[in-house]
Write a structure and sequence with these properties.
Layout lengths: L10 H13 L2 H29 L14 E6 L19 E4 L3 H6 L7 E7 L6 E5 L8 H13 L1 H8 L4 H8 L14 H4 L2 H42 L4 H7 L2 H41 L6 H11 L6 H28 L3 H7 L1 H14 L24 H13 L5 H28 L10 H10 L5
Parallel strand pairs: 1-2, 1-3
Antiparallel strand pairs: 3-4
Helix pairs in contact: 1-10, 2-10, 8-10, 8-12, 8-14, 8-15, 10-12, 10-16, 12-15, 12-16, 14-15, 15-16
Length: 460
């Protein structure tokens, strides 16, 4: 059996055929569509549901019975107009004044919508007490929510009790902000958002390796197994000799690998587009539906949008490309797994390899040492060698690319090592495939593989 000498001969045909087969599979189409719809529609609904409940006005939070009338019995010195609380919340409440508790009790007309607010000063602090009428439909949680609202805004009432003028009250209500600047005045524009961007950088350094690990593990488990099954099935095909006379083993492995990775990347891009669409759509829906522009939800969304310049477009593209190379790298291990196996039962023994390599690589990235040479920061090690080891670079480097912490030389070095790793593994898979194409039995050990390679080496 004479094989093609050109290692890339037939790569395009193998790639086109395999990609068509994978993307036309019902399982691929159904999985892609279902998850895309969940991301595109589920994220906005989830954001809307959580924020609509969190940002409700206080009077809308509890059950059917709500407070409508508050009888205020203020037994402390000074007078205050409790109606000013309407501007701060509970806009529909009617505040009525009662001189004594007896007058307040006798003034209750509707027990299901009226409470008594008693203000006393037994010691050096004010005491706010809410009384519920007998046989009322109002719950204690409703009363606690209202008294918490009054407590948080009691400062405004104390200003009135102190007989301060409107200008003095306005001066005391002015918000105070702080900032830190260098005496030289340099980098003022950059220092304004330094704290927020620093927090975001820490979150990126912490979250991206975990997300990359989960993404690679999921995709490798799905597509790596498919790659192994395809390679193993072709080894058992009766047409294998005909295939290898038309296509070089390297071209066969490379074409299948690229097709599998392309199908995975297409699926991933669809999901990523739906994720971004759902996130931005959900953010727009939240900002339109939340009535209070000063709510924590809206402020959080505004803070994220203000610091969006932290991530450059080039950094995002490079990070995605590096993750795609990492996926191709681990997928190459799946090709080696399929080349080693001669039957389905053997795959369970060989497929553990790429899962184990991924997990070990993740643990190598962990580290919390104070060694200056390692440049460790936070939970994940920043040791320089991790950026050039292909199996760890895919976990460490993307987060640095997103925030622009790597120089051009380091980026080029990481990409070169990744590409070299992919080429070497594909070559190894092709060599094993060619060596074991007619082999039947348990997967050979590395020692036995070397012996078989020496025996099959052509004589000079």
């Amino acid at each position: 059996m004479e094989m093609k000498r050109n290692p890339l001969s037939g790569t395009g045909k193998v790639f086109a055929f395999t990609l068509k087969q994978m993307c036309a599979a019902k399982s691929w189409i159904i999985t892609t569509v279902i998850l895309a719809l969940l991301l595109l529609c589920g994220i906005p609904l989830l954001l809307w549901a959580t924020t609509s409940s969190a940002d409700k006005k206080p009077e809308e939070k509890d059950g059917k019975a709500q407070i409508k009338t508050v009888l205020v019995c203020d037994e402390t010195e000074g007078t205050a107009d409790y109606s000013l609380l309407k501007d701060l919340g509970y806009e529909k409440l009617d505040y009525q004044t009662a001189d004594t508790m007896d007058a307040a009790v006798s003034g209750i007309k509707d027990a299901d919508s009226t409470v008594i607010l008693r203000v006393t000063k037994p010691d050096d602090s004010f005491l706010l007490t809410v009384y519920l009428p007998d046989k009322t439909e109002l719950s204690r949680s409703t009363a606690r929510s209202f008294v918490s609202f009054v407590e948080s805004n009691f400062k405004s009432l104390l200003m009135q009790k102190a007989n301060l003028e409107e200008t003095q009250i306005a001066a005391l209500s002015v918000p105070v902000s702080t900032e830190t600047e260098a005496l030289s005045g340099e980098n003022d524009a950059d220092d304004g958002g330094k704290d927020d961007s620093g927090i975001l950088e820490m979150l990126v350094d912490f979250a991206v390796p975990f997300m990359t690990l989960m993404l690679l593990y999921m995709m490798v488990m799905l597509y790596g197994q498919a790659m192994s099954n395809t390679v193993m099935a072709e080894k058992n095909s009766k047409l294998i000799e005909t295939i290898l006379t038309a296509v070089h083993p390297f071209a066969l492995m490379f074409g299948k690998l690229l097709a599998t990775a392309t199908a995975a990347v297409i699926q991933l891009l669809i999901w990523l587009g739906c994720l971004l669409g759902g996130a931005f759509g959900g953010a727009f829906l939240v900002k339109q539906s939340v009535s209070n522009p000063d709510s924590q939800t809206v402020q959080m969304l505004d803070a994220v949008m203000e610091n969006r310049s932290l991530f450059s477009v080039s950094g995002i593209i490079l990070a995605v490309l590096l993750i795609a190379l990492g996926f191709l790298l681990y997928l190459s291990l799946g090709a080696i797994s399929g080349a080693l196996a001669s039957k389905t039962e053997d795959l369970s023994k060989t497929q553990i390899v790429f899962a184990l390599v991924l997990v070990v690589s993740f643990f190598l990235c962990l580290g919390n040492t104070s060694d200056a040479a390692s440049e460790t920061q936070g939970m994940f090690s920043q040791a320089a060698w991790l950026r050039y080891c292909p199996f760890t670079a895919v976990l460490i480097v993307p987060s640095k690319l997103l925030v622009g912490k790597l120089g051009a030389a380091e980026i080029a070095g990481s990409f070169f090592c990744m590409i070299a790793g992919v080429v070497i593994l594909i070559a190894v898979a092709a060599a094993i495939y060619k060596l074991l194409v007619l082999y039947r039995g348990t997967p050979p050990t590395p020692k036995k593989l070397l012996e078989m390679a020496k025996q099959n080496r052509p004589a000079k």
